[in-house]
């Protein structure tokens, strides 16, 4: 028989898919609302089983954002669900990387609990990248369960079901639901305690060896300002100062914060991409694009393209290298189909404003930056090149 003493306190990160596909109406209500309801139900059920468990809520899409730190106050947790944002396309890899980092922090603080990730998503087809495989392996090694609840979408054949594979690799559960009744019961199952036969202690000496492997796989991108944040910055309602250089304008590229500025996805502090890049250069990691947030120590990474263009010489003096690999090579500007314009989760790299339906939008095939048609022609007259990557427009 199961005794209460066999059950450990659980720390769970809820990973809530807030990508655009979740907003499309599914029967009467959107999947996003369904997800919000069942996450609230998960929180209530879980904390009524054991009020000592704690939960953190993270939303993900094209970006990842923490809605709340670990807490065991159901009302606070449920309140935080109202702060969701819709964020482009699903990047499950980044969401899982983020959740793993949060849990590793918990493991280092207080070991001996059960650590779980609870993913709520509607993705059915997803690429099983090497990074995902490595992260699932790592999670399993650390004793972290990745439970996955798929709502809506299409049922997927066994051998192509990436979500199920990830859950299985961590000895966790995967379930697919189409109707609300089954979903409610299913969520109660997910909220119940994990029973583990073996009582592993992750403070054993081997743990030290496992954690360094985290570095490359779980580092996450700095968060781009959202369209609303960019709008507010352009109206100069908020004047962000980079926490490394204490300025709004980037000392390297001279762009204002709305263009070069990013946010630490964990502590939310504003940092210029180029300042972060210099910081990463000085860090001790073998990968020169990986670094810890100077303030909260979260593992972050800089896009390799930015890192390549940067060079730090003699401490403070900085120059942007002319990299023959990138600058000057021919690039194509590809027209984005009109129906895909609403899915662009980015602003024009020339004028920094967003795209509205009915406008003609082009994308650089080398660096993926987007441009309005009029901005592209202005840029062509001025530079004959892509402003972001320096590629020659052909
Ligand atoms: Zn800066
Ligand atoms: Zn910059
Ligand atoms: Zn931070
Ligand atoms: Zn533009
Ligand atoms: Zn480009």
Shape: globular
Gross CATH architecture of the largest domain: 3-Layer(aba) Sandwich
Mean pLDDT: 82
**What is the tally of helical segments?**
13
Structural class: alpha/beta
Give the strand order of the largest sheet, numbering strands 1, 2, ... along the chain: 5-4-1-6-7-8
Give the distinct bound molecules: zinc ion
Largest sheet: 6 strands, mixed
CATH superfamily of the largest domain: von Willebrand factor, type A domain
Total strands: 20
* Helical content class: 25-40%
Radius of gyration: 22 Å
Question: How much beta, percentage-wise?
Answer: 15-25%
Low-confidence parts, pLDDT < 50 over ≥5 residues?
Answer: 199-205, 311-325
Number of domains: 3
- Under CATH at level 1, the class of the largest domain stands as Alpha Beta
Distance between the termini: 72 Å
CATH-assigned fold name of the largest domain: Rossmann fold
């Amino acid at each position: 028989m199961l005794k209460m003493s066999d059950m450990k306190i659980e720390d769970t990160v809820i990973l809530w898919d807030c990508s655009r596909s979740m907003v499309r109406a599914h029967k009467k209500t959107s999947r996003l609302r369904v997800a919000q309801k069942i996450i609230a139900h998960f929180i209530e059920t879980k904390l009524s089983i054991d009020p000592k468990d704690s939960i953190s809520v993270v939303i993900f899409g094209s970006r990842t954002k923490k809605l709340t730190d670990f807490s065991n106050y159901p009302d606070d947790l449920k309140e935080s669900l109202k702060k969701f944002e819709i964020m482009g396309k699903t990047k499950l890899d980044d969401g899982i990387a983020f959740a793993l980092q949060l849990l590793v922090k918990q493991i280092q603080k207080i070991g001996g609990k059960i650590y779980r990730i609870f993913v709520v998503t509607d993705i059915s087809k997803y690429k099983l990248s090497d990074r995902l495989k490595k992260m699932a392996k790592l999670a399993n090694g650390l004793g972290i369960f990745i439970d996955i609840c798929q709502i809506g979408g299409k049922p997927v054949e066994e051998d192509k079901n990436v979500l199920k594979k990830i859950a299985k690799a961590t000895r966790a559960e995967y379930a697919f639901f189409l109707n609300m009744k089954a979903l409610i019961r299913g969520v109660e199952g997910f909220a119940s305690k994990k029973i583990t036969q073996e009582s592993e202690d992750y403070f054993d000496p081997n743990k030290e060896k496992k954690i360094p492997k985290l570095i490359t796989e779980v580092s996450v991108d700095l968060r781009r300002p959202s369209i609303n944040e960019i709008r507010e910055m352009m109206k100069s309602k908020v004047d962000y100062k980079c926490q490394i250089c204490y300025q709004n304008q980037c000392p390297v590229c001279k762009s204002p914060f709305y263009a070069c500025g990013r946010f630490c996805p964990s502590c939310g502090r504003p940092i210029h991409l180029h300042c972060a890049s210099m910081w990463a250069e000085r860090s001790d990691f073998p990968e020169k694009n990986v670094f810890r947030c100077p303030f909260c120590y979260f593992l972050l990474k800089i896009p390799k393209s930015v890192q390549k263009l940067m060079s730090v010489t003699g401490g403070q003096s900085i120059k942007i290298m002319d990299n023959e690999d990138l600058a000057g090579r021919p690039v194509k500007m590809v027209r984005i189909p009109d129906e895909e314009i609403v899915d662009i989760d980015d602003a024009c790299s020339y004028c920094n404003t967003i795209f509205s339906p009915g406008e003609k939008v082009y994308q650089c095939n080398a660096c993926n930056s987007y441009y309005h048609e009029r901005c592209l022609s202005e840029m062509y007259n001025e530079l004959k090149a892509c402003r972001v990557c320096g590629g020659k427009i052909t």
